């Protein structure tokens, strides 16, 4: 069973003819599981795809094209690779779809929140307020004719960390399929992509972490990715985000790493909190982005949004620890192990 959580190394247990390879890329463990005859080639294809996309799209690498876009904010447009142009446009579209919960210009808030500090501390409200106007995707100008991206205001910065892993999973899966590999499970942080069935003919199963559980391997539910569920595109992606990944607590209030781009503060579901959001989709990019967006959007609006998107489903744990899900989640694929911890 593969664990769908962003704070623990996912793992797979299958028949003896299935093997796994692991490499750290994009600041997380990338796990490739495939039949023994395919595993070495599959791992090379996947790791090469992730490294290439990380080199191009990481805002943390000074030499990346996206870092150059950030350096030239308010100065001039920057010519970028077509993939970066495409993914930035996709991020802006998703931000519009989700009521400004997924702004790629969020990176103007860099450095204000330190979830590794000991002791933890809140940022200066004046600093948050001062940077917030720079978080505005309408000032991210993507020009397909000149193949450029321009951040119109000095101090702006963009980041695609909430969508790049999903894109890397998609490109990896396409490359594996082109190499005539049909059975594999890919894991990147809190997201998996499953194709085909396990080597013993059984369905892939994905565990969903209890957001208040005692350990990362404490799954409150299991998703079974049935053959019928994967018929349309031959694969399915499952992505989970939550308020338990990186956080600190001050005065009984949990401050976590998923920021609301409209406030500059950790998301509270805009009054309707979400502890964790799991999204199922044939589109790994959309699943990656939406699992983050839903935590910001709030439980009721999140479910309404997913109901309006074809071939996409969601499972939420709300602020009271209740499990809520969209209408397309059936008993055949979703199994409660235990109620989430209150």
Describe the overall structure:
The chain is an alpha+beta fold and 342 residues long. The chain has two domains: 226 residues, ApbE-like domains (T-fold, Roll), CATH 3.10.520.10; 91 residues, Orthogonal Bundle (T-fold). 25% of the residues lie in helices and 26% in strands. It is built from seven helices and 17 strands. The strands form four sheets. It has an eight-stranded antiparallel β-sheet with strand order 2-3-7-8-11-14-15-16, with helices on one face. α1 packs antiparallel against α5 and α6 packs antiparallel against α7. The longest helix is centred in the N-terminal third of the chain and has 19 residues. The two termini are 25 Å apart.
Please describe the structure with a list of short key phrases separated by commas or semicolons.
about 350 residues; alpha+beta; T-fold; 2 domains; globular
